[in-house]
Amino acid sequence: MYIGINMGYIATLFTPAQEIEFAQEAERLGYRSLWVGEPYGNDAATVLAALAACTKRIQIGAGIFAIPGRTAAMTAQTAATLDWLSNGRLLMGLGPSGTQVSEGWHGVPFAKPLLRTREYVEVIRMILRRDKPLEYHGETIRLPLPGTEGKPLRLIMHPVRPAVPILLAALGPKNIELCGEIADGWLPFWFAPEHAATLRAPLEAGARAAGRDPSAIDVMVNVIVHIDDDLARARNTMRPRLALYVGGMGSKENNFYKTLVSSYGYGDIAEQVQELYLSGRKAEAAALLPDELVDMVTLCGPAERIAERLHAYQAAGAHTVIPMFETSSFAERMSQLQAFVDIAKRSGCVTLSLD
């Protein structure tokens, strides 16, 4: 099992120079991959280009490119360019986002997300292969656009790799099944090792239906981390972000994280957390989250406790654990970066990527 690092919401707390220092230190310490997302702040591609320029061997991951924000062709161009800039180090995470971001930010209807993801991935792979000019006659993507002067085109540049690894950020069973069918990897969030068999079942079913070996699909788990000798304080550090996801992500009717927490057996609590959060009582919502749930979906507390917990992720089939540190200062963030490597070494189940 390897470790990556999720750089969180870039351009919100730290300077560009600090982000570069953080990335270079992660590479030096043996983290295998760097991940950057793009909710509705920074875009991921620009940051990944900067990270590619200041690092040498660490993989750079889009975690994730939001499908509604780009055409499939633009994503393929971006992937080919980033892979070229990084000399073949790109990991391309994709996801349909949610209703509020898709429709409220990008102005793109959140319709048929499964079909759209399938067709989007197919088009990207066709473009990167460059085996013929692009023609695609799907339901959500049609190229060239019928009834226009558009003509089939071929990517001008020659990609470093004709098949950049594609990973899907999937939460619901149908999305996870699609991931098993078509993707090179799965990027789960709020993954509970105790529920691994249930979570992985659709992934394995999708892979088998497509004639694939489920073990060949990389499972790269994003997890919020806070290392602190005081377990109670560490849990309390986690609670506000968990409350945000359960209570405030998506709409009241469509919150994927609330649905996931409910599947873990916390449906009643999830309802109460959402009601409190949406009514502005955020501190009460956070306080309502039980210790057991915090422990299940995060890595927090003393070093020896987290080291032991890493074995649970390995047993659950994780190929990579990707921490996102819950910190407020750059000094603390750098300290946690080093401390997590020390924990990984202590666990004995992590391979570091060192020269």
Automatic annotation (TrEMBL):
It holds the Pfam family Bac_luciferase. Residues 14-319 form the Luciferase-like domain. It comes from the Bacteria. The keyword Acetylation does not apply. Keywords: Oxidoreductase. GO terms for molecular function: oxidoreductase activity, acting on paired donors, with incorporation or reduction of molecular oxygen. This is Probable F420-dependent oxidoreductase, Rv3520c family. It comes from Paraburkholderia diazotrophica. The lineage of its organism: Bacteria, Pseudomonadati, Pseudomonadota, Betaproteobacteria, Burkholderiales.
